[in-house]
């Protein structure tokens, strides 16, 4: 099957906007992040929990949730996109 793709670290430096300021300045209060996660659909919350908190691979999550690995990655992408949008709107 070949070598697994290397994983990127979860924490990255924020990208700078054209004004050279971070899009989401500073760390977020835990309650605000929890509220954003709670607003996600259940399957998105579960995929994020398993992938980010439990550290499972897309294949492992797919097996647990009866999904394909590609579907897991898509759900994760959509969940993270929704979280970014929610938190950016709270500025």
UniProtKB/TrEMBL annotation:
The keyword Transcription regulation applies. It comes from the Bacteria. Residues 32-83 form the RNA polymerase sigma factor 70 region 4 type domain. Keywords: Sigma factor, Transcription, Transcription regulation. InterPro entries: RNA_pol_sigma70_r4_t2, RNA_pol_sigma_r3/r4-like, WH-like_DNA-bd_sf. Residues 1-31 are annotated as: Disordered. SUPFAM superfamilies: Sigma3 and sigma4 domains of RNA polymerase sigma factors. One of its GO terms (molecular function) is sigma factor activity. GO terms for biological process: DNA-templated transcription initiation. Pfam families: Sigma70_r4_2. Belongs to the sigma-70 factor family. ECF subfamily. This is RNA polymerase sigma factor 70 region 4 type 2 domain-containing protein.
């Amino acid at each position: 099957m070949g070598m697994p793709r290397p994983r990127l670290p979860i924490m990255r430096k924020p990208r700078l906007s054209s004004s050279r300021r971070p899009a989401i300045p500073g760390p977020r209060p835990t309650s605000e992040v929890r509220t954003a996660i709670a607003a996600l659909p259940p399957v998105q919350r579960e995929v994020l929990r398993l992938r980010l908190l439990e550290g499972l691979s897309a294949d492992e999550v797919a097996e647990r949730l009866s999904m394909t690995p590609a579907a897991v990655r898509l759900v994760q992408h959509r969940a993270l996109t929704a979280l970014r949008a929610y938190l950016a709107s709270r500025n």
